[in-house]
Amino acid sequence: MAKRGLVSALVIIAVIVVFGLIFSSWYIGTRNRLVTFEENVDGTWSEIDNQLQRRSDLIPNLVATVKGFATQEREIFIQIAEARSKLAGSQTVGETAQNYNQLQSALSRLLVIVEAYPALKSDQNFIRLQDELAGTENRIAVSRKRYNDSVRIFNTKIRRFPSSSIARMMGLEKKEYFEIEEEAREVPKVDFEY
Asked: Considering the domain boundaries, does residue 26 fall inside one?
């Protein structure tokens, strides 16, 4: 009888140990996946940050080229410089998106001004800079999509049960999407009549 009780106790202990190992494995795996998803969000944000910096570095060259032709357009140059400065000082995703939109708006106005200077449109420096800027804009769009996809996956993971309880223990919170404002979606109006 005592032997039977000992066997029962060992079976219970074995079952508890097995469930403990399964739970520990699940917990560690879930925690590691959440860390991986968070790092992916941070990595894709760095990609956006790099492209924004590249764009920011190209803008002074573009402005200098346009200034040579359009010296009386001082106000737009000031707006671009201010918007560029704000973007460089952005701290959060929302701030970055807002400042990106302001810079985008100022650049759109600059490109409208360019239409008034036919000689500028054929200047090789301007064409090269405009192509570089267009390529950078495409890279930003791709990076923004990757970032938003990473945020969607991360936010979904930390909200779904049972990983949500581990995310709460880790102090993980929803990440912010990088979205553009509604007015930035409008295509600038360009008049080709001079």
From this structure: no
